[in-house]
């Protein structure tokens, strides 16, 4: 309109030109306000999603829930216990080894654990698991046994708390030395009960 008036003065009334320019400026401001409101709404959505996520419990590791402290709908505070979870992918097997081997038993030695898994039909399935000796007590019991434990891989959750297993620790005989070429010495199994 203004350009038309510049080419031909009086084509449009000056008041009408001014009113149209004000309406255009007003429309531009409404667009800016709408864009701002949209940005604020997006931030509110993100905030609500974050708040909603705070109602969810996720674990970085797998495992079994062994105890539930709080139920759905109950209020909790930050760092308050809501459940207890146990990771069964690695289990600690405890036992006693013959005290005569106390000098040869060292943390890190390989162990084998043999499990008889009870089945529904009354039979058992045999399973062999491997791991490493993690602890050897420094004292002997009255029965001349030494307390030991090992961490054993349990990927299929074969071993459960209270299950009786047989652990065998592999140790090198005290009088053996590696022969030339790095061939390892013969090893002796140490049964545990």
Describe the structure concisely.
The protein contains two helices and eight strands; from the N terminus they run H-H-E-E-E-E-E-E-E-E.
Describe the secondary-structure layout.
Blueprint: H1 2-7, H2 14-53, E1 64-68, E2 83-86, E3 90-98, E4 110-118, E5 124-140, E6 145-153, E7 165-171, E8 188-192
Task: Walk me through the structure.
- The chain is an alpha+beta fold and 193 residues long.
- The strands form 2 sheets. Strands 3-6-5-4-7-8 form a 6-stranded antiparallel β-sheet, with no helix packed on it. Strands 1-2 form a two-stranded antiparallel ribbon.
- The protein is 24% helix and 34% strand.
- It has 2 helices and 8 strands, in the order H-H-E-E-E-E-E-E-E-E.
Question: Which features characterize this protein?
Answer:
193 residues; alpha+beta; 6-stranded antiparallel sheet; 8 strands; 24% helix
The helix content, as a percent range, equals 10-25%
Q: Helices and strands: which structural class?
A: alpha+beta
Number of helices: 2
Strand line-up in the sheet with most strands: 3-6-5-4-7-8
**Shape from CA axes?**
rod-shaped
Low-confidence stretches: 175-187
Compute the separation of the termini in Å.
101 Å
Radius of gyration: 38 Å
- Secondary structure: number of strands: 8
Biggest sheet overview: 6 strands, antiparallel
Strand content: 25-35%
Order of helices and strands: HHEEEEEEEE
């Amino acid at each position: 309109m203004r350009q038309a008036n510049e080419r031909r003065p009086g084509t449009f009334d000056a008041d009408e030109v001014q009113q149209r320019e004000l309406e255009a400026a007003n429309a531009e401001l409404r667009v800016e306000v709408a864009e701002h409101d949209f940005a604020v709404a997006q931030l509110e959505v993100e905030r609500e999603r974050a708040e909603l996520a705070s109602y969810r419990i996720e674990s970085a590791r797998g495992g079994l829930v062994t105890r539930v402290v709080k139920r759905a709908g109950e209020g909790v505070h930050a760092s308050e216990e809501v459940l207890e979870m146990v990771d069964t992918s690695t289990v600690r097997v405890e036992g006693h080894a013959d005290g005569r081997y106390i000098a040869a038993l060292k943390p890190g030695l390989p162990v084998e654990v043999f499990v008889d898994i009870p089945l529904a039909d009354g039979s058992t399935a045999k399973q062999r698991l491997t791991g490493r000796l993690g602890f050897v007590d420094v004292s002997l019991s009255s029965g001349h046994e030494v307390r030991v434990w090992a961490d054993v891989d349990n990927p299929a959750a074969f071993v459960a708390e209270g299950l009786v297993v047989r652990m065998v620790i592999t140790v090198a005989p005290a009088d053996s030395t590696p022969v030339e070429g790095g061939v390892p010495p013969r090893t002796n199994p140490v049964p545990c009960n």
